[in-house]
TrEMBL record:
This is DinB family protein. It comes from Paenibacillus medicaginis. InterPro entries: DinB-like (IPR024775), DinB/YfiT-like (IPR034660). It comes from the Bacteria. Residues 13-144 form the DinB-like domain. The lineage of its organism: Bacteria, Bacillati, Bacillota, Bacilli, Bacillales. Pfam families: DinB_2.
Length: 155
């Protein structure tokens, strides 16, 4: 597989999610629908944060976002536990839109290199596998966003 496809897929997944986000009002972004633990705001921040944690972190590179993002959006977090104001929606949306290009710029030339953290939850062995692992993660969240948007737009 080529780096073109791995990052193209990431951009396509995000474009699909982005279309769904556009249908929401500002108030809807922070609602936690019944049956869910998180809001759309959390979903957006989580996808941005996890892409960096998975690709950069497991590859052994520097986390490029502020450390506070992990406090708000790492696995196991939820808005009910936030004790401070999370990163703003517009900033997260900008990162969401720009991150695939930045990751491609940083990693496309080294996709065949081995990961730094051999013991990782996805058992990824190369940086390219990390990109696909991140894409799988975001695809699952695309489903969550889809469900949440449907519920929120029916309220």
């Amino acid at each position: 597989m080529s780096d073109v496809y791995a990052f193209h897929l990431m951009a396509k997944i995000r474009q699909s999610i982005r279309k769904q986000l556009e249908s929401l009002s500002e108030d809807q972004r922070n609602v936690v629908p019944a049956g869910f633990n998180n809001s759309i705001h959390w979903q957006l921040g989580h996808m941005v944060t996890l892409a960096d944690m998975v690709i950069c972190g497991i590859a052994g590179k520097q986390f490029s976002l502020p450390e506070s993002y992990k406090t708000f959006f790492a696995p196991g977090t939820k808005p009910a536990d936030w004790t401070a104001e999370p990163p703003a929606w517009d900033g997260l949306l900008q990162l969401f839109d720009e991150q695939p290009s930045r990751l491609r710029e940083d990693f496309a030339a080294i996709l065949d290199e081995p990961v730094a953290l051999k013991e990782n939850f996805g058992q990824a062995e190369t940086i390219e596998e990390l990109v696909y692992l991140s894409n799988v993660h975001e695809s699952s969240h695309a489903g969550m966003v889809n469900a949440m948007v449907r519920i929120l737009n029916k309220q």
